[in-house]
């Protein structure tokens, strides 16, 4: 990763103890240490209710259910973020691969990765860990 997850440039900053107190163990490993949950194990990989998905670290809105699609990969997949300014893209060369990591621009929470095999028009697939997001149903 080219930028530390606890970089002081993020508007929301917390101590490690504060992150541990706020997040469950899986959320903490994903959000603060760029871990990845196993495919088909997260709570949102096959969740398609109307609403929005926010960062577990700071509550910033990140993805809308209207952009969610079944990519068959076992993780929640979105064709786009709610706003490009909501997410940060960083070059990730870990695990012998070159990928684009996606983080919450507000607090640095590791969300997942973005790939260029998504649906038109943008052709992107945001592959996001369920442990990095919370769902809020749309008001009826």
What does this structure look like?
The protein is α+β, with helices and mostly antiparallel strands. The chain has a single domain, classed as Metal Binding Protein, Guanine Nucleotide Exchange Factor, Chain A, CATH 2.170.150. The protein is 11% helix and 29% strand. The chain has two helices and nine strands. The longest helix is centred in the N-terminal third of the chain and has 9 residues, at 25-33. It is globular.
Task: Note the topology.
Elements: H1 16-22, H2 25-33, E1 51-55, E2 61-64, E3 68-69, E4 77-78, E5 87-92, E6 99-104, E7 110-115, E8 125-128, E9 133-137
Structure in a nutshell:
By secondary structure, the chain is α+β, with helices and mostly antiparallel strands. The chain is 11% helix and 29% strand.
Given as residue ranges, the uncertain stretches (5+ residues, pLDDT < 50) are none
Query: Any idea what the radius of gyration is?
Result: 14 Å
> What string gives the helices and strands in order?
HHEEEEEEEEE
- CATH-level-2 architecture: Beta Complex
Structural class: alpha+beta
Beta strand count = 9
Helix content, binned percent: 10-25%
Give the N-terminus to C-terminus distance in angstroms: 41 Å
User: Per DSSP, what share of the residues sits in E-state strands of 2 or more residues?
Assistant: 25-35%
Q: What number of structural domains do the residues give?
A: 1
CATH class descriptor name: Mainly Beta
Outline, from the CA principal axes?
A: globular
Mean pLDDT: 95
How are the strands ordered across the major sheet? 3-4-8-7-6-5
CATH superfamily: Peptide methionine sulfoxide reductase
Query: Major sheet: size, sense and barrel closure?
Result: 6 strands, antiparallel
CATH topology: Metal Binding Protein, Guanine Nucleotide Exchange Factor, Chain A
Count of alpha and pi helical runs: 2
């Amino acid at each position: 990763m080219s930028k530390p997850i606890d970089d002081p440039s993020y508007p929301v900053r917390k101590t490690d103890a504060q992150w541990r107190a706020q997040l469950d163990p899986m959320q903490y490993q994903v959000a603060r240490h760029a871990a990845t949950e196993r495919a088909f194990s997260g709570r949102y990989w096959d969740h398609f209710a109307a609403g929005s998905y926010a960062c577990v670290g700071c509550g910033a809105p990140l993805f809308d259910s209207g952009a969610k699609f079944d990519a068959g990969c076992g993780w929640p997949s979105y064709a786009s973020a709610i706003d490009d300014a909501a997410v940060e893209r960083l070059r990730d060369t870990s695990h012998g691969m070159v990928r684009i990591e996606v983080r919450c621009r507000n607090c640095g929470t590791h969300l997942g990765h973005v790939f260029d095999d998504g649906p038109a028009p943008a052709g992107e697939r945001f592959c996001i860990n369920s442990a990095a997001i919370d769902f809020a149903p749309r008001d009826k």
